[in-house]
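quick one, 84 residues, struct below
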Amino acid sequence: MYVKLFSSIYEGSLAQRGPWEALVTFIHMLALCDRTGMLDMTPDAISRRTTMPLDIIKKGIVVLEQPDPDSRRPDEDGRRIVRL
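---
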């Protein structure tokens, strides 16, 4: 599956504030999602598929689920991911 990853991902609030685990997790999740942007995988499955340690994936998900007051998108209070 092809995903367009814009270089602006490295200029946004996530890249500026971190933690790096969230940025890496987000990039992997983008690569794994379907064409509608959905990713139906557990953290354990993401870890196995990407070979990233589970603790890094879990730490990243916690950050990605948090509101981001500096987000350019007001949807979901700027959260980058929302659980299914």
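The mean pLDDT is 93.
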